[in-house]
Write a structure and sequence with these properties.
This protein is α+β, with helices and mostly antiparallel strands. The chain is built from 15 helices and 16 strands. It is elongated.
Length: about 425
RNA sequence: GUGGGUGUAGCUCAGUUGGCAGAGCACCAGGUUGUGGCCCUGGGGGUCAUGGGUUCAAGUCCCAUCACUCACCCCA
């Protein structure tokens, strides 16, 4: 048989109800903060990601699903959402009327990595992006929005990790002094870090190999190299967070994997997901809009990993099937036709309805209704048709009443609304 | 891309030195000719991941492949 492709997954009910719950909560929450939904496509020109994420990042080097499009263009299934949102912001000149714009997106991303717990080749993210605001208070507000979002979902045990990556004015000096220091200690670094040292020395900072950590512990911190305006910005973010009572941890070794980040970088981490501890991550990318051919506008955003978040929510609240409010049990052909009619009308009238057309014994139908968690069953057989009244049974209290067949929908609804005297 | 672990019924898993393919749960039917849960009885279900090899004989041993999984790398 044909199986689903490696690293991809089916999300089945009842788990889908958890996803719907998370997505709906995110939508209302983010919209309360002034965000509106944007839905960019999942396919973009490869060049978009090469230019935004960075040519020498792992994502671009080996993790993108890229294939030939028409003519000479290479197409890529998006490995992240920010580049698309920025592209749309520029392409549709969304900055023209008002450079300040806030968007969120929900959808799948694709990265060809080796799958493991909390990491899939297609994974779902909720992204939020803000353009045209450089105020540090916005940075803090975004983190606040994230943490209250998690709180709404009753997800706890999360830590905010915060860092500043500086800007093109101050980062080069730091980079230079870092690589200088690391080169001097290169004999103590792991093979991966020696490679990083060449390509992107910042990445050495978050290496987990003990030997490297030891070296890194004495490495200079970006925070010591911040220029005056970056320092002012970072201080304002911190004090705004304190003002909003959002606990955070300064993490000078927090490095983000994408090249475009500047200044504020943050990650929301949990200890409950094994090696993949980041539930959300984001930061400023003040130069990306201009880099991609747009006006010079500051921007900031974050991504929430929905697969990981769903794991956290489900660990706390295992999903459950709701069960129909009324389960129709027809006995006989005449009853089935009548049931198709009335059950459809009842469902259309807003009552969660289920039917069993299998024609099996009443005992079998009852067992199935019970197993599915039906609150009530509605029995129709020859006797009920003759009486012009069906039997409605409350599965919990085992009370049975007769409900007139005429105006059945209204009668059943009226009965359901009666308070149960269990 | 690298390393470890695991693949037997729908699910969770037993399966001894190589010797008839098993259990629990779930499902179906009956016990109750029109009433669920508990109980009793019976039943249906298997390419033992796939392909080769060794052997009189392979779920079991060997090789390869695939998948799942955890970790590294990296990231959400």
């Amino acid at each position: 048989m044909i199986q689903l492709v490696r690293g991809f997954k089916d999300i089945l009910p009842p788990e889908t109800s958890v996803w719907q719950y998370i997505e709906n909560t995110a939508k209302t929450h983010f919209e309360n903060f002034g965000f509106r939904e944007m839905r960019p496509p999942v396919l973009e020109q490869a060049a978009l990601f090469q230019r935004s994420i960075g040519e020498h990042t792992d994502i671009v080097e080996k993790e993108m699903y890229t294939f030939a499009g028409s003519r000479d263009t290479l197409l890529t299934l998006r490995p992240e959402a920010t580049a698309s949102v920025v592209r749309a912001y520029i392409q549709h000149k969304l900055y023209a009327a008002d450079p300040v714009a806030k968007f969120y997106t929900i959808g799948p991303m694709f990265r060809k990595e080796r799958p493991q717990k909390g990491r899939y080749r297609q994974f779902q993210q909720i992204n939020a992006e803000v353009f045209g605001v450089d105020a540090p208070y916005l940075d803090a507000q975004l983190i606040f929005m994230l943490m209250t979002f998690f709180a709404r979902l009753s997800v706890s045990g999360l830590q905010v990790h915060l860092n500043s990556l500086g800007c093109p004015q101050c980062r080069p000096a730091f980079k230079e002094s870092l690589s200088h220091m690391l080169s001097a200690q290169s004999d103590k670094l792991c093979a991966d870090c020696l490679r990083r040292l060449e390509k992107n020395p910042l990445r050495v900072l978050d290496c987990k190999v003990p030997g490297c950590r030891k070296v890194v512990a004495e490495a200079p911190s970006m925070l010591d190299y911040l220029c005056r305006s970056c320092q002012v910005h970072f201080d304002a973010v911190k004090s705004a967070l304190e003002g909003m009572a959002v606990p955070y941890e300064i993490d000078p070794w927090l490095v983000r994997g994408l090249d475009y980040y500047t200044r504020t970088a943050f990650e929301i981490q949990t200890a409950e997901l094994g090696a993949q501890n980041a539930v959300a991550g984001g930061g400023r990318y003040d130069n990306l809009v201009e880099m991609l051919g747009g006006p010079s506008q500051p921007a900031i955003g974050f991504a929430v990993g929905l697969d990981r978040l769903a794991d956290l929510v489900m660990a706390k609240f295992p999903p459950a099937e709701p069960g129909p409010e009324v389960f129709f049990l027809p006995m006989g052909e005449a009853a089935m036709e009548m049931t198709a009619h009335w059950a459809s009308l009842l469902a259309d009238a807003g009552v969660r309805t289920e039917v069993d057309f299998s024609g099996r014994s009443l005992k079998a139908l009852m067992r199935r209704a019970d197993r599915m968690g039906a609150q009530n069953v509605l029995m129709i057989g020859d006797q009920e048709i003759a009486d012009r009244a069906v039997v409605l049974r409350n599965m919990k209290t085992r009370d049975q009443v007769q409900v007139p067949l005429d105006a059945l929908v209204e009668n059943v609804k009226a009965h359901l609304e009666k308070p149960n005297v269990a």
